[in-house]
Write a structure and sequence with these properties.
Blueprint: H1 6-26, E1 49-62, E2 65-82, E3 92-103, E4 110-120, E5 124-132, E6 140-149, E7 157-161, E8 164-180, E9 183-201, E10 204-218, E11 222-235, E12 241-256
Antiparallel strand pairs: 1-2, 1-12, 2-3, 3-4, 4-5, 5-6, 7-8, 8-9, 9-10, 10-11, 11-12
Amino acid sequence: MNAPSPAERRASLPRAAAFLGVVALASTLASSAVAAGIASYYPLRVGNAWSYSTEKHTKITHAFEVQETEKLGTIEQRVIGPSRLSTKELKVFEVRNTIEERGSSNAPVVMLETILHISSSQSAILLHAVDASKGTIGPILPKPVAILRDPPASEPLTSQLGTLNMTATVKTQSVEAIDVPAGKFPKALKQFAEGPVSGELSGLRVRSGTVQEITWFVRDIGLVKQERLLDITLRASDGDEFHLSERAERVLQKFSSAKAE
């Protein structure tokens, strides 16, 4: 079988990068409302709903050629009920996560729906499992993923997407004001994480790469903004190299509290 040409490789990279963005955005979600502590940064009450706008800009450079793509979309989340993973000691909730993504032109819409199993306590927001759409039950994660923790998690968190690995460590957590369409918040918790990227993407090996993720949380609201920056250099077996940079953003447009319904 002949190796793919540089043009064929370039054509496959945006699709892989787009999938990467979808999963990355889909993996950081909701939580539970206990009096104070970390739990209040993600109110997990049945009926609570979040609506986000998203955009993703990808740039691929090969030799003197540059290819750029942009995708826009929405993310809708709603707490729909208790999870099958709940126990007497731990309440876990199901959060329906629906992603609708389209190109900046009239490109076909890509839909992805998952059910996230989330728990929260005074010290941590944890993701336990992700189910696919149409009732397909997914595997329980070998170890719950800490979305937010106090104090911040010191161990690196590795996300595996096919043969691509992103390992990020929380570097800082601070409080600052933020202004998004859903409102102005004087005291948002800002979390910054970064780390290396390794593995392969579209059959090309990662020679070097980094990922940075900045997330803002607000008490009694949840995640209000998230930015992810991906920068990787890919190398083919024949020595051909491609540089991919991607910026993905999600911004809260509306939050609906079940208390007010």
